[in-house]
Specification:
AB_hydrolase_fold, 8 strands, disordered N terminus, single chain, alpha/beta, globular, two-stranded antiparallel sheet, Rossmann fold, about 10% strand
Length: about 300
Amino acid sequence: MAALRAAVPLLALLALCPGPAAAAAPLVIWHGMGDSCCNPVSMGYIQKLVEKKIPGIYVLSLKIGSSLIQDMENSFFMNVNEQVREVCSQLAADPRLQGGYNAMGFSQGGQFLRAVAQRCPAPPMLSLISIGGQHQGVYGFPRCPGESSHLCDWIRKTLDLGAYTKSVQEHLVQAEYWHDPLKEEDYRKNSIFLADINQERGINETYKKNLMALKKFVMVKFLNDTMVDPPISEWFGFYKSGQAKETIPLQETSLYKEDRLGLQEMDKAGKLVFLGVKGDHLHFSEEWFDSSILPFLQ
């Protein structure tokens, strides 16, 4: 009994002393159009920033292809469904991700990672952070980043001529999330990527179940965006069907009202987070990133 009485204060003391902090979940990053996994002023910068702020975290910046040049070219010309399959294979083969990971996609990388969440539940994606991702697609192509601008003219002409033709859909990434509100039937029928992951041709219950397994789905919209048309696509809104002037928020879309992806249920459960940041597409400060994004990774 004396030994037991002596042990009680010791147990109480141990209860007050916290053990080692749990390691942060790994982070998977997917870059946007015209970028690459390891560009020192974009994804390389983000990776180092996260590693500095969260010591010990494992960060995987996705590379599609055998070189940085190929990775950049694939962001324009490699079938998105093939890219998603490649990424799912990479994630499944990485032993450091098997307990689960957070994902952060930039621009088109945001919607591509959502496809990973819906199609590839193992290893499990814990939370998805979409920074400027166009989840209802685009209907306009104002400009391309950096040195890729010359490609924009060609891409724009190609999209105007026939975004929903089989050859363009198969070989031009941006056509695969082109959403023409004036040709909704063509979009639903012929879009080989976005119409599928947005459940436009029927309900894939597995997609819905897998997306709803996320703890958080964070969507960042750039309030002065001149690159994404319409910018509200970054919050899962889009043009009202049949015209290209008036936009509606996610909550007024049929996707939400019919709850084809489970977004309505996720919204009511507090799993959807809508963040706005001043600035043009992908323009944000380190201070904003620290205060608004890092808390979702820790």
